[in-house]
Amino acid sequence: MSTGSSGFEERIAAAWDTFDGHGDTEAAGAEFRALIDTVVAGLPDSSPVGPFERACAFDSTGHSDRAVPLYQEALRRGLTGYRGRRAKIQLASSLRNIGRAAEGVALLEPELTASSDELDDAVRACLALCLSSLGRDREGLSLVLGALAPHLPRYQRSMAAYARALVQPG
User: Fold this and answer.
1) DSSP-derived 3-state class of residue 104
2) Residues in contact with 70: Cβ distance below 8 Å, sequence separation at least 6, in sequence order
3) How far is Cα 154 from Cα 168, in angstroms, rounded to an integer?
4) How far apart are CA 41 and CA 166, in angstroms?
5) pLDDT for residue 3 is more than 60
6) Residue 48's closest CA among 20, 82, 22, 18?
7) Is the CB of residue 125 less than 8 Å from the CB of residue 92?
8) How far, in Å, CA of 55 to CA of 158, rounded?
9) DSSP state of 86
10) Annotation: CATH topology of 8-107
Protein backbone atom coordinates (compact mmCIF):
# COMPACT_ATOMS: atom_id res chain seq x y z
CA MET A 1 0.00 0.00 0.00
CA SER A 2 1.38 3.38 -0.93
CA THR A 3 1.64 5.86 1.89
CA GLY A 4 1.25 8.80 -0.44
CA SER A 5 4.27 10.51 1.05
CA SER A 6 7.72 10.56 -0.50
CA GLY A 7 10.29 9.20 1.92
CA PHE A 8 7.72 8.07 4.48
CA GLU A 9 8.96 4.47 4.60
CA GLU A 10 12.50 5.62 5.30
CA ARG A 11 11.36 8.07 8.00
CA ILE A 12 9.15 5.53 9.77
CA ALA A 13 11.89 2.89 9.63
CA ALA A 14 14.38 5.40 11.05
CA ALA A 15 11.96 6.25 13.87
CA TRP A 16 11.50 2.58 14.75
CA ASP A 17 15.27 2.10 14.67
CA THR A 18 15.45 4.45 17.67
CA PHE A 19 12.91 2.49 19.73
CA ASP A 20 15.37 0.54 21.89
CA GLY A 21 17.23 3.73 22.74
CA HIS A 22 14.15 5.32 24.30
CA GLY A 23 14.13 3.24 27.48
CA ASP A 24 11.30 1.55 29.34
CA THR A 25 9.82 4.39 31.37
CA GLU A 26 6.39 5.88 30.66
CA ALA A 27 8.10 9.18 29.80
CA ALA A 28 10.34 7.40 27.29
CA GLY A 29 7.29 5.69 25.80
CA ALA A 30 5.50 9.00 25.47
CA GLU A 31 8.57 10.48 23.77
CA PHE A 32 8.66 7.59 21.28
CA ARG A 33 4.92 7.86 20.57
CA ALA A 34 5.38 11.59 19.92
CA LEU A 35 8.12 10.76 17.42
CA ILE A 36 5.80 8.36 15.58
CA ASP A 37 3.02 10.97 15.66
CA THR A 38 5.40 13.45 14.03
CA VAL A 39 6.34 11.03 11.27
CA VAL A 40 2.75 10.04 10.44
CA ALA A 41 1.49 13.63 10.62
CA GLY A 42 2.44 14.13 6.98
CA LEU A 43 0.15 11.34 5.77
CA PRO A 44 -3.31 12.10 4.39
CA ASP A 45 -6.02 12.09 7.07
CA SER A 46 -7.71 9.12 5.40
CA SER A 47 -4.55 6.99 5.31
CA PRO A 48 -4.80 3.68 7.15
CA VAL A 49 -1.05 3.70 7.75
CA GLY A 50 -1.14 6.51 10.31
CA PRO A 51 -3.42 4.74 12.81
CA PHE A 52 -1.51 1.50 12.22
CA GLU A 53 1.87 3.02 13.06
CA ARG A 54 0.40 4.85 16.05
CA ALA A 55 -1.16 1.57 17.25
CA CYS A 56 2.21 -0.15 16.94
CA ALA A 57 3.79 2.59 19.05
CA PHE A 58 1.15 2.27 21.77
CA ASP A 59 1.45 -1.52 21.70
CA SER A 60 5.24 -1.42 21.89
CA THR A 61 5.15 0.92 24.87
CA GLY A 62 2.75 -1.21 26.92
CA HIS A 63 -0.63 0.26 26.02
CA SER A 64 -2.55 -2.52 24.29
CA ASP A 65 -5.81 -0.90 25.39
CA ARG A 66 -5.00 2.25 23.42
CA ALA A 67 -3.62 0.30 20.45
CA VAL A 68 -6.81 -1.72 19.84
CA PRO A 69 -9.00 1.11 18.51
CA LEU A 70 -6.17 2.37 16.31
CA TYR A 71 -5.58 -1.05 14.73
CA GLN A 72 -9.32 -1.34 14.19
CA GLU A 73 -9.40 2.10 12.55
CA ALA A 74 -6.49 1.18 10.27
CA LEU A 75 -8.32 -1.95 9.13
CA ARG A 76 -11.60 -0.04 8.69
CA ARG A 77 -9.74 2.42 6.46
CA GLY A 78 -8.62 -0.43 4.24
CA LEU A 79 -5.14 -1.40 5.44
CA THR A 80 -4.16 -4.40 3.35
CA GLY A 81 -1.11 -6.36 2.29
CA TYR A 82 1.78 -6.96 4.64
CA ARG A 83 0.82 -4.13 7.02
CA GLY A 84 -2.79 -5.34 7.01
CA ARG A 85 -1.73 -8.82 8.06
CA ARG A 86 0.58 -7.38 10.72
CA ALA A 87 -2.33 -5.28 11.99
CA LYS A 88 -4.49 -8.38 12.39
CA ILE A 89 -1.76 -10.26 14.26
CA GLN A 90 -0.96 -7.34 16.52
CA LEU A 91 -4.63 -6.50 17.09
CA ALA A 92 -5.32 -10.10 18.09
CA SER A 93 -2.40 -9.99 20.53
CA SER A 94 -3.61 -6.71 22.00
CA LEU A 95 -7.16 -8.03 22.31
CA ARG A 96 -5.79 -11.02 24.20
CA ASN A 97 -3.81 -8.70 26.47
CA ILE A 98 -6.97 -6.83 27.45
CA GLY A 99 -9.05 -9.94 28.07
CA ARG A 100 -10.76 -10.26 24.68
CA ALA A 101 -8.99 -13.37 23.38
CA ALA A 102 -12.10 -14.72 21.64
CA GLU A 103 -12.06 -11.69 19.34
CA GLY A 104 -8.41 -12.41 18.60
CA VAL A 105 -9.25 -15.98 17.64
CA ALA A 106 -12.03 -14.79 15.34
CA LEU A 107 -9.64 -12.32 13.70
CA LEU A 108 -6.81 -14.81 13.14
CA GLU A 109 -8.58 -18.03 12.18
CA PRO A 110 -9.24 -16.75 8.61
CA GLU A 111 -5.53 -15.92 8.35
CA LEU A 112 -4.72 -19.64 8.54
CA THR A 113 -6.01 -20.02 4.99
CA ALA A 114 -4.86 -16.64 3.66
CA SER A 115 -2.07 -16.32 1.13
CA SER A 116 1.13 -17.63 2.66
CA ASP A 117 3.95 -15.27 3.60
CA GLU A 118 6.67 -14.83 6.20
CA LEU A 119 4.02 -13.96 8.82
CA ASP A 120 2.39 -17.41 8.78
CA ASP A 121 4.22 -18.60 11.90
CA ALA A 122 3.43 -15.35 13.72
CA VAL A 123 -0.26 -15.87 12.94
CA ARG A 124 -0.09 -19.36 14.42
CA ALA A 125 1.88 -18.29 17.48
CA CYS A 126 -0.48 -15.44 18.30
CA LEU A 127 -3.53 -17.59 17.63
CA ALA A 128 -2.08 -20.25 19.93
CA LEU A 129 -1.75 -17.68 22.72
CA CYS A 130 -5.34 -16.53 22.20
CA LEU A 131 -6.55 -20.13 22.27
CA SER A 132 -4.59 -20.82 25.44
CA SER A 133 -6.14 -17.77 27.09
CA LEU A 134 -9.51 -19.38 26.35
CA GLY A 135 -8.47 -22.71 27.89
CA ARG A 136 -8.00 -24.34 24.48
CA ASP A 137 -4.38 -25.36 25.08
CA ARG A 138 -4.41 -28.52 22.91
CA GLU A 139 -5.49 -26.50 19.87
CA GLY A 140 -2.84 -23.89 20.60
CA LEU A 141 -0.12 -26.50 21.05
CA SER A 142 -1.20 -28.14 17.80
CA LEU A 143 -0.76 -24.84 15.96
CA VAL A 144 2.66 -24.21 17.47
CA LEU A 145 3.94 -27.72 16.74
CA GLY A 146 2.58 -27.50 13.20
CA ALA A 147 4.39 -24.19 12.69
CA LEU A 148 7.61 -25.48 14.24
CA ALA A 149 7.75 -28.81 12.38
CA PRO A 150 9.01 -27.47 9.00
CA HIS A 151 11.90 -25.68 10.74
CA LEU A 152 13.27 -28.79 12.49
CA PRO A 153 16.38 -30.48 11.08
CA ARG A 154 14.69 -33.87 11.66
CA TYR A 155 11.31 -35.21 12.81
CA GLN A 156 9.27 -32.83 10.64
CA ARG A 157 6.85 -35.55 9.63
CA SER A 158 6.33 -36.98 13.10
CA MET A 159 5.90 -33.54 14.70
CA ALA A 160 3.35 -32.57 12.06
CA ALA A 161 1.49 -35.84 12.77
CA TYR A 162 1.58 -35.19 16.52
CA ALA A 163 0.23 -31.70 15.93
CA ARG A 164 -2.71 -33.11 13.98
CA ALA A 165 -3.32 -35.82 16.57
CA LEU A 166 -3.77 -33.21 19.30
CA VAL A 167 -6.94 -31.92 17.66
CA GLN A 168 -8.27 -34.80 15.57
CA PRO A 169 -10.68 -37.21 17.25
CA GLY A 170 -9.58 -40.82 17.65
Assistant:
1) helix
2) 51, 52, 54, 55, 58
3) 23
4) 48
5) no
6) 82
7) no
8) 39
9) H
10) 1.25.40
Q: Which residues have CB under 8 Å from 71's CB, separation 6+? A: 51, 52, 55, 87, 90, 91, 94
Contacts of 57 by beta carbon, 8 Å cutoff, 6+ apart: 32, 33, 36, 37
What is the C-alpha to C-alpha distance for residues 73 and 91, in angstroms, rounded to an integer? 11
43 contacts 50 by C-beta, under 8 angstroms: yes
pLDDT tens profile 26-42:
999 999 999 999 999 99
Residue 3 sits at φ, ψ, to 5 deg, of -90, -10
Q: Are 139 and 131 in contact (CB under 8 A)?
A: yes
- Per-residue DSSP letters for 41-73? TTS-TT-SHHHHHHHHHHHHTT-HHHHHHHHHH
For 121-150, b/e burial (b = at least 16 CB within 10 A) is ebbbbbbbbbbbbeebeebbbbbbbbbbbe
Most distant CA pair in the chain: distance in Å?
57
Would you say 89 and 123 are in contact if contact means Cβ atoms under 8 Å apart?
Answer: yes
Query: In which band, very low, low, confident or very high, does the pLDDT at 169 lie, cut at 50, 70 and 90?
Result: confident
